[in-house]
Amino acid sequence: MDVSKIGGLNMKKYLTLENGDVFVGTACGDLGGEINGELVFTTSMTGYQETLTDPSYQNQIITFTYPLIGNYGISLGTNQSNKVEAAAVVVKEMTEQAFHYQSVISLDAYLKQSKIPAISGIDTRQLTKIIRQYGTMKASLTNFPVDKKKSASDHQASIIKMASLSASSDKKIDHVVLVDFGVKANIVKSLQRKEIDVTVVTPESTYEDIAKLHPTGILLSNGPGDPTAYSDFLPVIKKLQEAFPIFGICLGHQLLALANGAKTYKMTFGHRGINHPVKNLENGDIFITSQNHGYAVDADSIKETPLKVTALEVNDKTVEGLRYPGRPIFSVQYHPEAAPGPHDAAKLFDHFIDLMHATEEVH
Ligand SMILES: NC(=O)CC[C@H](N)C(=O)O
């Protein structure tokens, strides 16, 4: 059955952009749902389930440039958090029936269950060209045409309670304290696969809260929104970097930069996709990465800090990697854990382990 039809009628949905453009499509997902958010696009051909459940996408309306979304349904164990985090979904075509042996429910049914509105029948390539020209902008998804632009609510850091997660094996040697700004499940899983104990703490934690857990290393997670909104945690990072190995991923990378006096800026339309080439400036290697960010570290501002730029995005020269020379501290703007994307960067978890082992325990 065509899920967008009620009583034989297509339910229209309106996507109204901040610049005044309006796209009319067919309602899917939560049919009655209306939402404001930041309109972004991703070029990933696969991994829609991971994308939609990634907390870094909170308050964002995600446009998929790939024309057919939902074809392999929704499977157990793939979510990156326990719910759909994106505010809404824009697609050219939403597959009505999923075909995959692991699929337990269709994407459309999952969005309905999760009360997430979606719109299909949109020329997502045209929409993406507009976002590329004007930059990421606010938009609303409504059931009737709107003449007034509504503003999206500001990003909020998610507050998740402290949890202790144990690795499966007895021979646990490392204990990573993961500061959770909106962590993707696969970052935790990537550490656990390496037999590492992980304790997840909230960004309200103090240096003392973290130090008394006796970590072998600290992981600063990914997360939604503007990194400058997390200024309360920067002094904690400054103290942590005196004592522990640190690995920052995406938002965590931006926060490491800010804590050391660098600046971040909002990109025009960000990097969201699974084929971003990155060049390692230290050995010349180029590898393909999965990315999802709308802010970036200002390369010039790094010159005023003790940090060193270790990697750049090949197309637009965005800062993709940093390290603190002489200390076991590094960060990347891309996602080394990304499950639907390339695995070229997965070895960074081993690099983190090597740094932790090379460091004398200070606590
Ligand atoms: N994936 C992330 O951690 C994103 C970081 C930040 N919210 C940005 O958009 O740049």
From TrEMBL:
GO terms for molecular function: ATP binding; carbamoyl-phosphate synthase (glutamine-hydrolyzing) activity; glutaminase activity. Coiled coil: none annotated. One of its GO terms (biological process) is 'de novo' pyrimidine nucleobase biosynthetic process. L-glutamine binds at residues 56, 223, 225, 251, 254, 292, 294-295. It comes from the Bacteria. Keywords: Amino-acid biosynthesis, Arginine biosynthesis, ATP-binding, Glutamine amidotransferase, Ligase, Nucleotide-binding, Pyrimidine biosynthesis. It catalyses: L-glutamine + H2O = L-glutamate + NH4(+); hydrogencarbonate + L-glutamine + 2 ATP + H2O = carbamoyl phosphate + L-glutamate + 2 ADP + phosphate + 2 H(+). This is Carbamoyl phosphate synthase small chain. It comes from Lentilactobacillus kisonensis DSM 19906 = JCM 15041.
